[in-house]
Amino acid sequence: MYASFYSLGAAEEVTGSKHVLEIDGKSYLIDCGAFQGSRAEADRKNRNFGIAEDRIEGVILTHGHFDHCGLLPLLTKRGYKGNIYATPATRDIASLIMMDSANIQARDAKYLKSQAQKKGEKFDWEPLYTEQDAITAVSQTVGVSYNRPMFIGDGASLEFHDAGHILGSAVAHIKIKKDGKELDILATGDLGRKNKPIIRNPAIPEVAADYIILESTYGDRLHESTDDAMEKLATIAKRVYDKKGKILIPSFAIERTQELVYYFHLLVDDCVIPEIPIFVDSPMATNATTIFQVHPECYNEEIKRAFIRHHKNPFGFNALHFTTSVQESKALNDHKGPLIIISADGMCEAGRIQHHLIHNIQDPNTTIMTVGYMAENTLGRRIRNREKEVKIHGDWYKVNAHVEEINAFSAHADYKETLEWLKALDTSKLKGILLVHGEKKSQAFMKKYLEENGFPNVQIVQYGKTYEMS
């Protein structure tokens, strides 16, 4: 039996997860995500797929974030006909993400073409894929519930365990059995955190893994406590209320938006902050909230008790509004404060949040609050770094708005939380840990930290390099 691993994305960087597990000459793709960064770099990396589609035996999708599922339509467009394995909730979320991406690309192509024509420039950029390609990818996705082993190839089986990252997220357990030998591999996808407000804690798979493919997004950072974050959230909300200003929150439509709504709900219910109109200005977030409502199998017990039995809407309250049209979105720019706008994209690289930034980033009564990871070279990272000027849609804007960061709402485990999860596993036959999905500085810290805490065989995965699994 021969098995090996190599990465074609999210190796010594974050976003674009695309890893390959080779089993006796057959290739299994673990995630098929899009790279997020500057427009030119992202386009170049996403078009360079790195593996021929006819070599892939099956695809294992750990969760529905764009940087893990965003290139599946390109894979099917190029001729992949096999199965894509995902939990039912991930299948629904990925469908939403991929369709939205196709729609955004089509709009971008139309807009950029018109701009080029105005300047008399040549324009030949084409979207990576269309909505029909996304539909094809969804049609090839097989729903696999948690803790239900499934054979995915000769001598290979797959079992999903709750990763506690977003709705439907999974740690993939791949078991290989051949010639009387067994090899157990755990691939975390993105590992979540305990005590999140909606979904369950990360599961502890009852398996003695030989190898763990481990994410390291927050490999050198610790999160604030939720109590401290709630206090900070309340302070920001009260300040904006007094100044009749606006809070702009660039937020991923999946999980983070629903959590923020939940937290604001708690603060209002406990009379900690006054009721401030909240607008979720993201069609995807609106649709995602509907997906949340049809997947109670992913809820933690607190949500089941407190909301499903006693509350008509687990993800909303009286001050909450969902915009549905472009006209409603534009009207928010003329809306007087106090006002909270939660809008995608979470890294500010696309979507309606860019238009809200254009109209409000120069206003000192505006607060821009970042609540999640911002990849290198993204607009969100530049704002979080408090650069004095940023470019949006080709024009420069002074950053006069307050910029606040709350990292307690991150869906990624930090390095201490990751160690706690690892120590709860059966590591009696663990041969190695392969670090993916992290920036170089974070991974170097995490490697040293894990080695100092009883995990000596940690390797930082390099792009394209093959790692044998014995």
Can you characterise this structure?
With 470 residues, the chain is of the alpha/beta class. The chain folds into 2 domains: 3-221 and 411-469, Metallo-beta-lactamase, Chain A (4-Layer Sandwich); 226-405, Rossmann fold (3-Layer(aba) Sandwich). Helix content is 33%, strand content 22%. The strands form 4 sheets. The chain has a 7-stranded mixed beta sheet. A 7-stranded mixed beta sheet has the order 7-8-9-10-11-20-21, with helices on one face. A 6-stranded parallel beta sheet has the order 14-13-15-12-16-19, sandwiched between helices. Strand 17 and strand 18 form a beta hairpin. Helix 4 packs antiparallel against helix 5 and helix 4 (88-119) packs antiparallel against helix 8 (283-293).
Work out the radius of gyration: 22 Å
Give the number of DSSP strands: 22
Tell me the distance between the termini. Answer: 8 Å
- The residue fraction in helices comes out at 25-40%
CATH fold annotation of the largest domain: Metallo-beta-lactamase, Chain A
Any idea how many domains?
2
Name the poorly predicted regions.
none
CATH class of the largest domain: Alpha Beta
Give, in spatial order, the strands making up the sheet with the most strands: 6-5-4-3-2-1-22
Beta-strand proportion: 15-25%
Shape: globular
Rounded mean pLDDT is: 90
CATH superfamily of the largest domain: Ribonuclease Z/Hydroxyacylglutathione hydrolase-like
Structural class, please?
A: alpha/beta
In the CATH hierarchy, what is the architecture of the largest domain at level 2?
4-Layer Sandwich
Helix count from the secondary structure assignment: 14
Outline the biggest β-sheet. 7 strands, mixed
